[in-house]
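Field reference: sequence -> structure
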Amino acid sequence: MQRRENYLYVGMDLHKDTHTAVMVNCWNEKLDVIVIENKPSEFNKLAKRVNRMAVKLGLSPIYGLENAYGYGRSLAVWLIEKGYIVKDVNPSLAYDQRKSAPMMKKNDEHDAYCVATVLINQLHTLPDAKPEDNHWTLSQLVNRRDTLVKDGIRLKNGLHEQVSAAYPSYHRFFCDIDRKTALYFWKHYPSPIYLRNKPVDELFEEFKAIASNTTKSKIELIFECVHNDGNTIREYQESRDFITQSLARCLEQQKEEIALIDCEIERMLRYFDYKLTTIPGVSIATASKLIAEIVDIRRFPSADKLARYAGISSIKFSSGGKGKEQSSKQGNRELHGLFYFLAVSMVTVPKTGKPNQPIFYSYYQRKISEGKTKSQALVCIMRRLVNIVYGMMKNKTEYRPFEDHVVVEQ
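Structure field:
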């Protein structure tokens, strides 16, 4: 067991440009304050100053980083490579420490002191910082993909605003505004004025070169809709046409970028050797998000711990021997959302009337017949999925139907 009086505690408040460090002894006495720039050449300066204080007091330095996987990642990696003990301090713990004071203060030095205080009080429970390059790189790719997807939604909304004015009935001939043929059409025919004197056969040949399954009846439908919509040309139409064409070009580029990132994510997933994509309904994008949020599966001793981390396990609130279990609002909300939407896809019944995943659907119906609400039954599905994902990542196995799925502890 580590003895608190043997360490010099260094609490770090980390930012994009600078880091603030406060050295504290086990009696919560502030010994020194250091401010460094966020670059490797300054990290050595910090370590030397901390080491001098540690030698002077006969203590071993231990670092607590509030953002070890964000702005402090470079510092955490540097310190770990040099052999120092580095603990990851959850920002919520430092926030609670600030609130516990009679008068709440907020500045970099006090924030770093609060981190050091948490480090002292929870020395034996705080996790070691393990900013591994593979998980970090994958999370960067996932974040980049999510950003592009969000940008695509904004672009599609903007494109809809433009083309709905020029082509009020466009949804009759393009069910998806950003499909390949649609984007070609918006780039070359942003408003009906470009279709004047345009032969049906000529437009049909253009579409045929893009999508071989294009039918002539669809081209005729376009002209029919344009005719029935009436005159949609307004003043300054050229500028609005330019906007439409610009949005279509951006959407094409966005789709190409997402395709490139998907290829890179697929290549990156090979380094992990997880087989999450064998789960029905789990795409490469979903698998990469699961791995990026869970990080190292070995930090969870059991599937119960992973469920608690994802905010899926219920929490018991009681006093005097009385109480009840309630759903948790804590945990990793991104991971919670992934399991939620995955569970929804498992029990969805398409128009064909056949469930996407009969095993999960029957389990879902059985829970409802036992008296659970639909939301509670869905949580049961999520909990099953946690067991499956945990077992597959722990043992690096392929998916097996959950009724036969066994989690082997290692």
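Note: The first strand starts at residue 7 and ends at 14.
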